[in-house]
Amino acid sequence: MARVKVSDIGEFGLIRRLAEKLSVQASGDLIIGIGDDAAVWRVGGRAVIATTDTLVQGVHFLAGVTPWRDLGWKALAVNVSDVAAMGGSPAFALVTLAVPPDAVVESFDELYVGLRECAEAYGVTIAGGDVVRAPVFSVTVALMGEAVMEGREPLLLRRDAAKTGDAIAVTGVLGDSAAGLRRLTEGGSAVDALVQKHLRPQPRLESGRAAIEAGIRCGIDVSDGLLQDVGHICEASGVSAVLRAQDVPVSDALRAAYPDEALMLACTGGEDYELVLVGTRERLEGLDVSVIGEIVPEAETLAQLLDKSGEPLTFPEAGWDHLRGGKSENGNRKSGKA
Amino acid sequence: MARVKVSDIGEFGLIRRLAEKLSVQASGDLIIGIGDDAAVWRVGGRAVIATTDTLVQGVHFLAGVTPWRDLGWKALAVNVSDVAAMGGSPAFALVTLAVPPDAVVESFDELYVGLRECAEAYGVTIAGGDVVRAPVFSVTVALMGEAVMEGREPLLLRRDAAKTGDAIAVTGVLGDSAAGLRRLTEGGSAVDALVQKHLRPQPRLESGRAAIEAGIRCGIDVSDGLLQDVGHICEASGVSAVLRAQDVPVSDALRAAYPDEALMLACTGGEDYELVLVGTRERLEGLDVSVIGEIVPEAETLAQLLDKSGEPLTFPEAGWDHLRGGKSENGNRKSGKA
Fold first, then answer.
1. In 10 A of CB A152, how many CB atoms?
2. CB A106 to CB B48 under 8 A?
3. Residue A35: CB atoms within 10 Å
4. What is the number of alpha carbons within 13 Å of residue B103 lying toward its C-beta?
5. N or C: which end of chain A has fewer CB within 10 A?
6. pLDDT by residue (tens digit) across B47-62?
7. Are B30 and A140 inside 8 Å of each other by CB?
8. Does A134 contact chain B (CB < 8 Å)?
9. What is the pLDDT at residue B327?
10. Is A70 helix (H, G, I), strand (E, B) or coil?
11. How many angstroms away from the CA of A331 is the closest CA of chain B?
């Protein structure tokens, strides 16, 4: 048997492979399983939303670069964003710390301050967790919440609900987080506005719920980068997307800091934790969002960016696949997520 | 400020310290927070139970010693045991794999086979998760389930419900898992019955539910070792315990394999995943358990083992605290758990 390494197939490849092994598993109470921002199942007449994310030292953050307090905020915030991307509300979290024996305890005190700040900001109660020994520090948060119900049916922002002719919109501005990370690794100050966007992401809980209220039923959060995350929606929905570069919202701060790369950072930089929302143009235009493109019938390219004259735009450095440690597959029809 | 290392205060010390930072957090829907086998909160008229556990390579298992398939089983089974220790039923799991890029993909295929075997055995649906890059492999499972309800009140096996005069009982036999681990690290065969008890723990879901039905409201699973886990109940309940060595149930296989150490392994070996149940003797005697001791008023020692003549018995090698990498504190009044 061939010995395939994880680096050969990448993070998304491994997720796909493992999801297939579990695909015949089902439960009458399960509403959304592997393949969306969070899982959803019925509990009595309600619907529980659950998601989990891990930040590993040296992979997702660097010690001495990311302050511990900001790391605590971010560890919970990225999970809150997954719940926002389902249109729900978070409620309870379990926090697992994997800690090396020679780690300094005060670091975790700081981490918990940030964790608690985020918990209070988004109405989350930290209900338990685990502490384990490990050679490298990591923090894993599992976050549970609830969906908005209409009678016995949960109203959700799903990845697989995009239809040809739908408009594509995004909340806020994109690319600031990636620019902030670049500043931070270049030794920039934590008070820099771009750096703050990277260290203290503000998940779009209100926007998710407003979208549900407006009748939107398709969405995702921007964690991997706009093109890649729109690609996830297209793959799950069996469609493709066309995006207009001039409509992608970019901050003045980003344009000023990186004039030549602002668009690239906005389209491929990850960790903005804004929401991509897909639905009819009328419904989207009632929300505080920027309409950036349309859903089109399934094509070879999942998400195609066009310049002003309608010519395709590509970024060789587009996206990022952690496990491959390099370029992602956002141009091809094979990405996935658990 | 003193730089306290994690190894100075141990796993339980770190959990206590962090739990204190979160102690003023509360929610009207939270029923059980940090400090029990699992967290419990209300969702409509029901009660959701949630727990999480992580297995780290080199800490909780050794590559090349524990087969990947058994590791998959165990990663879920230890969480099922936490739900059993609350008297509830598991339902949905999120699985996070932290994988080095040079790891062999087929290992994870095997891991998922075991994970699925356990999921099917205990009625769990794997609903999602995450794959991240990390320098060392670990698997984290977050498991959600439900409590048995009586009207709007959940019926639970809590750690903090032991009362002076209650009897203490345990399901099954103890020490086999620790003996199996010893065999395994000495190169023993995976078909050895003791090794099987270590590799494929069978959480006591039915016993937990039967205990609830019999009116028992206090319990814990044996993960750290009998004395230490009884100590967790005593600390949470503000009582102490007296256990009789001759009543601690030990298998014939364990007695035959390690005649001189069987009792020590049964009292201090971890990972048996049996249940300790505490309640009136009448209620316990209706269950398939061994009564091994009584709850007594709070004393200096949390859990005291007595020999046939009523003399205190101690094991210098008692218990284990992963983060300290050495002896635990089961004799002292200061252990805890998130």
1. 10
2. no
3. 20
4. 29
5. N
6. 999 999 999 999 999 8
7. no
8. yes
9. 39
10. helix
11. 21
Binary contact (B21, A132; C-beta < 8 A): no
Q: Is A263 exposed, middle or buried (0-12, 13-18, 19+ CB in 10 A)?
A: buried
In this structure, are residues A63 and A100 in contact, taking their beta carbons and an 8 Å threshold?
no
Q: Whole-angstrom Cα distance, residue A249 to residue A11? A: 28
CA A70 – CA A73 distance, rounded (Å): 5
What tokens were used for B121? 């055995």
Hey, is A117 helix, strand or coil? Answer: helix
pLDDT higher than 60, residue A276? yes
The mean-pLDDT minimum among A160-164, A283-287, B6-10, B14-18 falls in B14-18
Across the interface, whether the CB atoms of B108 and A144 are under 8 A apart is answered no
- Residues B250-300: pLDDT tens digits? 999 999 999 999 999 999 999 999 999 999 999 999 999 999 999 999 999
Interface check for B328 against chain A (CB to CB < 8 A): the answer is no
pLDDT score of B322 more than 50 = no
Q: What is the DSSP string of A221-278?
A: E-SS-HHHHHHHHHHHHTEEEEEEGGGS---HHHHHH-TTTHHHHHHH------EEEE
A209 touches B at CB < 8 Å: no
Q: Which two tokens stand for residue B62?
A: 């050794």
Q: Which residues of A touch B26 (CB under 8 A)?
A: 125
| Interface mutation vs chain B, best among A76, A125, A271, most B CBs within 10 Å | A125
Percent of chain B with pLDDT over 90: 75
Q: Which residue among A5, A94, A106 sits closest to B142, beta carbon to beta carbon?
A: A94
How high is the pLDDT of residue A22? 67
Cβ-defined contact of B112 to A51 (cutoff 8 Å): no
pLDDT value of position B34 = 80
Judged by a CB distance cut-off of 8 A, whether residue A22 touches chain B is yes
Residue A125 has pLDDT above 70, yes or no: yes
Interface of A with B in 60-89 (CB under 8 A): 60
Are the Cβ atoms of B113 and A21 closer than 8 angstroms? yes
Q: Which residues pair with B169 in a beta bridge?
A: B277, B291
Rounded CA-CA distance A59/A56 in Å is 5
**pLDDT tens digit string along B142-161?**
999 999 999 999 999 999 99
Q: Does B19 lie at the interface with A, CB-CB under 8 angstroms?
A: no
Residues 225-264 of B with CB under 8 A from A: none
Based on C-alpha coordinates, what's the Rg of chain A?
A: 19
What is the pLDDT, as a whole number, of residue A25?
A: 53
Residues A89/A209, Cβ–Cβ less than 8 Å = yes
